[in-house]
Amino acid sequence: MADAHVLVVDDEPEIQELVRYNLAKAGYQVSCAGSGEEALSAIQDQPPDLVVLDVLLPGIDGLDVCKALKQSAQTFAIPIIMLTARSEEADIVTGLELGADDYLTKPFSPRVLLARVKAALRRSGHLPDLEVGIIQYEDVRIHPGHREVRVGTDIVHLTPTEFNILHMLAQRPGWVFTRYQIVDHARGNDAGVTERSVDVHMTALRRKLGLAGAVIETIRGIGYRLRTPATKAS
Questions:
Q1: What does the pLDDT look like over 31-55, one tens digit per residue?
Q2: Where do you find CATH 1.10.10.10 in the chain?
Q3: Which of 26, 73, 79, 217 is positioned for an S-S bond with 101, CB 3.0–4.6 A?
Q4: Is the peptide bond before 107 cis (omega within 30 degrees of 0)?
């Protein structure tokens, strides 16, 4: 964990210093940027292992920075934790739909921030992952050690959260997982997400998997499961 490099992007000096201090105290390497333009330049020069990104930035805002990172093959896998003063569900969903892995609303607890950072790094593969068994489900191949998903021979680019959701479903095909179980596994018990955000990740997963995405079944009022031959007719 001490080797992990975190970029903190916030135009408020007090917030930037609060985040920097707590991350450095926890053993992370920390760099800071005060604008979207500065952040994109810093990431191009030295890609971090994780970005803590404020939404309301001067010039290029945090949502546009997130979008740019997730559209680039060089940076799409970098986990992003959004910081926002906006607690409205629509703003949170927008960030998640652009590819952000988590979010915190201001004001926030430094302890919660550290827990989210640690969880996001673990999901991204920077922290050790002991589950190395490869799963082959129809045309979908999941390699936990490589954090890689293929449909046929094509690599599917998933966010760390999307990967963990798919991996959980694939470990127990046919088993119905509630939205709360999915949140606990994919983001940690500390993560404050809504049921709607789980649905957003599922929609993105299905879209990225293409035709293979049909194996993910919605169980109305409960959650999701990975279909098996025995459940396809239900």
A1: 999 999 999 999 999 999 999 999 9
A2: 135-226
A3: 79
A4: yes
